[in-house]
TrEMBL record:
It holds the Pfam family COX2. This is Cytochrome aa3 subunit 2. Residues 60-153 form the Cytochrome oxidase subunit II copper A binding domain. The chain crosses the membrane at residues 7-28. It comes from Lentibacillus juripiscarius. Subunits I and II form the functional core of the enzyme complex. Electrons originating in cytochrome c are transferred via heme a and Cu(A) to the binuclear center formed by heme a3 and Cu(B).
Length: 153
């Protein structure tokens, strides 16, 4: 083998090893793995598992709300969400079937909601109005119909 070939081979192998060490260090030592595994749920038993047995909008404190939401082909439950402007709203979500998306137009809310996992996202709607909620993960033939609205008063 040519001398230069050997050098380049060694260099590329070395870079691979360095990257694996960095990623391994971040993932295991620093705990920088994806957070989605933290809260899991049996996707077959969403309807019987608290808090998803009672989807809805709940007042959790002074100016604090929690929306317990299930996503399924092709709807969001609850479908009629109303929260006061400026309140801290936490969406606690899971999917009952396939992967769905939870995107709220005009905000930076954009989450993936997967069966078996609990997704949480917190947001304050400062401007009153109607916010369009869209599923942005292709989930089947009715995907383009999967939408709802959040009313902020
Ligand atoms: Cu649900 Cu696309």
């Amino acid at each position: 083998m040519h001398r230069l070939e050997e050098i380049w081979l060694a260099l590329s192998a070395g870079i691979l090893v360095i990257f694996m060490v960095i990623v391994g260090y971040q993932g295991f030592a620093l705990g920088m793995g994806p957070p989605s595994n933290m809260d899991t749920i049996d996707p077959q038993k969403v309807d019987e598992t608290a808090p998803f047995d009672e989807p809805g909008v709940y007042k959790r404190g002074e100016n604090e709300y929690e929306v317990i939401m299930t996503l399924q082909a092709f709807s969001f439950n609850p479908g009629d969400i109303e929260v006061p402007a400026g309140a801290k709203v936490t969406f606690t979500m899971t999917s009952k079937d396939v992967t769905h998306g939870f995107q709220v137009a005009g905000t930076n809310i954009n989450a993936m909601v997967m069966p078996g996992h609990i997704q949480k996202i917190t947001h304050s709607f400062d401007e009153p109005g109607n916010y369009l909620v869209l599923c942005n993960e292709y989930c089947g033939t009715g995907h383009q119909l999967m939408s709802t609205e959040i009313t902020v008063k």
